[in-house]
Design brief:
The structure holds two protein chains of two kinds. By secondary structure, chain A is α+β, with helices and mostly antiparallel strands. Chain A contains 25 helices and 21 strands. In chain A, helix 9 packs parallel to helix 12, helix 16 packs antiparallel against helix 24 and helix 23 runs antiparallel to helix 24. Chain A starts with a helix and ends with a helix. Chain B has seven helices and ten strands. Chain B has a six-stranded mixed β-sheet with strand order 6-7-8-3-9-10. A four-stranded antiparallel β-sheet of chain B has the order 2-1-4-5, covered by helices on one side. In chain B, strand 7, helix 6 and strand 8 form a beta-alpha-beta unit. In chain B, helix 3 crosses helix 4 and helix 5 packs parallel to helix 6. The longest helix of chain B has 16 residues. Chain B is globular, with a radius of gyration of 18 Å. The chains are: A alpha+beta, B alpha/beta. At the A-B interface, helix 1, helix 2, helix 10, helix 11 and helix 13 of A face helix 2, helix 3 and helix 4 of B.
Chain lengths: 797, 235
Amino acid sequence: MRNAAWAMAPRWRKLWRDAVAERGRFVLMLVAVAVSLSALGAVLGAYAVLTREMADNYLGTVPAHATLELAGDVDAVVLAKVRAQPGIEAAEARDVILARARVGDDWRPLLLFVVDDFGALSLSRFAPQEGAYPPPPATTLLERTAVGMLGATTGGRLQLKTPHGPLVSLPVAGLVHDPGLAPAWQERCGYAYVTRQTLKQQLGEDGALHELRVRFRGVEETMPAVQAAAQSLAAALRAQGIAVSEIKVPPPRRHPHQTQMTTVLFLLLAFSALSLLLSGVLVATTLAALLARQVREIGVMKTLGARTAQLAALYLAMVAAIGVVSLLLAWPLGMLGTRGFAGAVSQLLNFTLRDAWPPAWVWGVQAAAALCVPAAVAALPVWRACRVTVREAIDRHGVSSERLRARIARWPATLRNLLRRPARAALTLGLLAAGGAMFMTALNVSRSWELTIDKVYQTRHYDVELRLHAAQPLALRERLAREPAVRRVEAWGYSEAAFARAGEVDLSHAYPDRGHGSFSVMAPPPDTRFISFPLRAGRWLQPGDDDAVVLNHAALAQQKQLKIGDAVSISIGGRVTRWRLVGIVEEIGAAGVAYVSDRAFARVTATEGRARLLRVATTASHAAQRQQLIRALETRLAEAGGSVETAAPLAELRTAMGDHIVILIRALMALAAVMAAVGGLGLASSLGISVLERTRELAVMKTLGATAPRLIRGVLGEAQWMGLASGVLAFALSLPLTGLLDGLVGGLGFVAPLPFAVAWAAVAGWFVLVAAVSCAAALPPALRAAGAPIALALAQV
Amino acid sequence: MIELRELSKRYPGPDGGTPALERVTLALPDGEFVAIVGKSGSGKSTLINLVAGIDRPSSGEVQVNGVSVPSLGESRLASWRGRNVGVVFQFFQLLPTMTVLENVMLPMDFCGTYPPAAARERALKLLAQVGIPEQAGKLPSALSGGQQQRAAIARALANDPPLIVADEPTGNLDSQTADAVLALLASLARDGKTVLMVTHERDVSAIADRVVTLSDGKVVGNEVASRAGRALHHA
């Protein structure tokens, strides 16, 4: 053993002993690199796992390429005709009915999926989770994420009502997992599954299934190709006397929340890569400071025969060792992070993670990052330090160049001391500023998000929306207005719709959950006080408008080529109507909507004197009061013969919006904390080394009469200047970064950038944090230096 | 043989810079103990720095055993110096985190002259030669000044260089210890090494073979001392 120890060359033993002597700083570097590597590993691993699981989960459901809405029943005869068409891989009859579930005293929206044969699912598959499968007659299955929403589970009962049927209580036979749907709690809507027989016999509907779901063979899975194939099929069916009223083509191979997932993970990957770069800068800064203290030793080693390359290799090996040890810490931490983060995102996507282990290449990337990033950033300061000549090394006094010293000769002493080593000061400043900029940016984006959510209330001035199955006489408005706590009621026109193209069946990009990608037409009264959406272009509707249409930005995203003045064809209730685009508004939190005047809408839909949408402003001050009012309004509507399709407080929209993106905001905050930590560690390291280097100088000042408090004040002053300068730079950097992220996150969530906002509390918080870290870092070495016996301090070389 | 021809060194500064050496021409045979003396600022340290390749001349030539030192690149210079010049500093400059033995082994490691096991054996012998074998496992901070300088001399001898360069090796030592160190350096010269030493010691003629006196960057004296007289002095 002893021989083995002596077999190690002395230079490596020097390296080890130097590391032990500076173990505090090495631990600091290790922690910074390990934390950043862990974050990188966690996010990269989650990205790899989720991308892989996407194939298993969503694509494993064999999602339909297209859903054709037929006027009649999709029975065995129709299916046979469809399957006989060339290029049809699979076809199945389904239906989705917007029903309502009774939960306690309240109603919740319920999507009822009607399946012809649970035992022969070829498309849009879902898997049994517990209980009976297929469901026995007169029972229902629930999607697993709807259990909380509906307050029912296996063995319980679900009270539900379809548009034409009575309130019915069905036993819940079991739960299924449907990865093709976004989580019910996020969409604020329950999901249940029944057979055609149950739909007819228990729920009071006619039992007809109107959805034809198809997958094409030999068709490229792109939107244009699938759309074309669907239109071809519709034309072929029309030629056989089968009427198709609408085609829905969701984005092929894309889960409803896939764009969110990809963008979230990409952003977090960028942040974590940046934090790794910052930790590399921290290593370089700390190492440069350590090398500065070793300048004389470097010179001595060169007199003993060491070449520049030998010395550089020595110190870069030290950096590599930091990388290796950090990697050993980061692998398990990153793994834990991957499992946690992937688990959280999988809930967002309604996935079941079959395998949360990241692929080997993720560990490979972490290893490469650990070995390369700190070494790459440290290479220049190491090379510069090792290139010093023997004479320079032995003569060096630890101050900046003559030219710089001359230029800053009149600056306050505190600032001059900061610039003794301008390269190190610049690195520390950059590190701290970058960390601060990320910290402020993350909190700014969070604030922008809050402001966006607030827009839900700022642009909508009602509390409750009631949508009816069919348009009802406007007199209902007065009936509802008589309810206590009702301030105002407006009756609007409403219809599901689609952008029409000549010679083609109406086509939308809605998913089976009917939420994502949908499009509707709304017709407010001319004196509406319930909406005030900001205009992006053109104008709002005016009295007298007969064919004017205003699109919200989500609708424009579906028809990007449209501009003000263009003609727009919209299919409403199977009838093509023509309009002129007069304005674009920004409507946060809504799917695509086209606004037309109520008079024009009533004319084209033959619904004069009737309305399908009722919006109500109330004096209710809390949720319970609002719920009670909603129940009362529904009772009034039922008494008047109105059948309610949905009844929702505006607060539900705010909750749904928040749930969609909360994971990104939380992850950004976590990464902001990592950035702040790395920046703070860098500052602590740099300040500590700076004070240590000046132990002798401080002792000389004591001999000249400087008191300990004065010395300490001087050191703390330098720390505060560094903190202040970094805070100002961080703030300046955070502004364009915030704008960039607002655009990305807003586009992800709302197809519109988030409003630019500065979280001033975060800015102030950063300055306070940096001031505190500066003091905490500078005080102990300053106290030690000020208290050290003068003779001992002067003896240091 | 050390040959200096028209050697000049000017340090950059205002008004054209400060001349440290001006057209020094000197020939020093092998195996001599050469003392370089003069007042502060006379150019003594500059001279030995140029010989050891620690600094580069502004003009002129330095040849050590036929090798033109200024013409070597940094990398080759470091290698050449490690094998051909042993440097002894006034403040010892032992690496503080390495033991005395490891300090002595370090030049052999950098120059690849001995494998680690053999280097260790040689380092122990050198420490015995300079009289401090029992200090091998200690850190420099545990040694007295004299012991540290002996360790530095052992380190300078690690690769068996023909030339030892010492810049005021006794400047930080008490007189008794200084005498011992000077005697050690003199013994190296007797063993055939060339020793070049900058010193403020008043009576160096007692131990040096040659005394070169510098004043204002020029050689003003180059005297060969009597070996017989020295031998009597150190008896």
